[in-house]
């Protein structure tokens, strides 16, 4: 569950700091989201085998899927900062967050010993709100902020 606390801190801290010093809140919101995706991407390369356990054994090349999703998350982080006004980036992020959520359900139901999933379905009481927060944050700071 530490990872969730770190992700929440990375997401919110830049915005709070920006507000405290009078900086651009939209840029800080996107920076926080980029930091979350960069943190997650790094995890895909450091904990590849543990993350592969979050996917059903019936999926071929689970390890490669984890690495590919890590590269994709790193690309999302870069895209948030390189194209801050692109609604496409926001739509891609939301679609990605929705697409990966079933792996969190699978891992929690099977109590996979990684990132809090071993807590079982109770883990989803924390993870689901985090996913919703990330979707809302993306809407607010990427989609709405690009208008």
Characterization of the model:
With 147 residues, this protein is mainly α. The chain contains 6 helices and no strands. The N and C termini lie far apart (35 Å). The chain is globular and about 45 Å long.
What is the compact description of this entry?
The protein is an all-alpha fold and 147 residues long.
Write the layout of secondary structure elements.
Layout: H1 2-21, H2 25-46, H3 48-52, H4 62-82, H5 87-109, H6 124-143
Helix pairs in contact: 1-2, 2-4, 2-6, 5-6
Compute the average pLDDT: 91
**Proportion of residues in β-strands:** under 5%
The separation of the N and C termini measures 35 Å
Instruction: List how many beta strands DSSP finds.
Output: 0
- With helices defined by DSSP (H or I, 4 residues minimum), what is the helix count? 6
Assembly state (oligomeric): single chain
Q: Mind describing the biggest β-sheet?
A: none
As a whole number of angstroms, the C-alpha radius of gyration is 15 Å
| Helix coverage percent | over 70%
Class by SSE composition: mainly alpha
Poorly predicted runs of 5 or more residues: none
Secondary-structure element string: HHHHHH
Give keywords.
about 150 residues; mainly alpha; 6 helices; globular
């Amino acid at each position: 569950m530490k990872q969730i606390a770190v992700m929440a801190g990375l997401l919110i801290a830049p915005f709070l700091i920006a507000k405290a010093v009078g900086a651009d809140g939209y840029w800080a919101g996107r920076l926080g989201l980029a930091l979350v995706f960069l943190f997650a991407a790094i995890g895909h390369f450091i904990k590849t085998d543990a993350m592969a356990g979050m996917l059903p054994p019936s999926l071929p090349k689970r390890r490669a899927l984890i690495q590919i999703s890590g590269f994709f998350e790193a690309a999302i982080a870069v895209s948030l900062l390189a194209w801050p006004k692109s609604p496409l980036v926001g739509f891609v992020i939301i679609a990605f967050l929705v697409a990966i959520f079933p792996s969190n359900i699978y891992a929690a139901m099977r109590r996979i010993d990684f990132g809090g999933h071993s807590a079982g379905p109770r883990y989803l009481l924390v993870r689901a709100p985090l996913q919703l927060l990330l979707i809302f944050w993306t809407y607010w700071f990427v989609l709405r902020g690009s208008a």
